[in-house]
Design goal:
Elements (H helix, E strand, L loop, with lengths): L34 H12 L5
């Protein structure tokens, strides 16, 4: 698997994980959104630290 850094910015500091036991891949229902649009939507609409 290739992990790509797409340069997302977060509004709060992230806490590093000590251990990862599983990864969940969630796909959007929006036909044209990519990772950056989903990231911004979570910040603006939900008030989250983004994705």
């Amino acid at each position: 698997m290739k992990i790509e850094n797409v340069g997302l910015k977060f509004s709060k500091a992230l806490t590093p994980l000590k251990r990862v036991t599983k990864i969940i891949i969630h796909h959007p229902a929006h036909p044209t959104w990519g990772i950056k649009e989903i990231h911004d939507y979570h910040k603006k609409s939900n008030g989250w630290n983004r994705i």
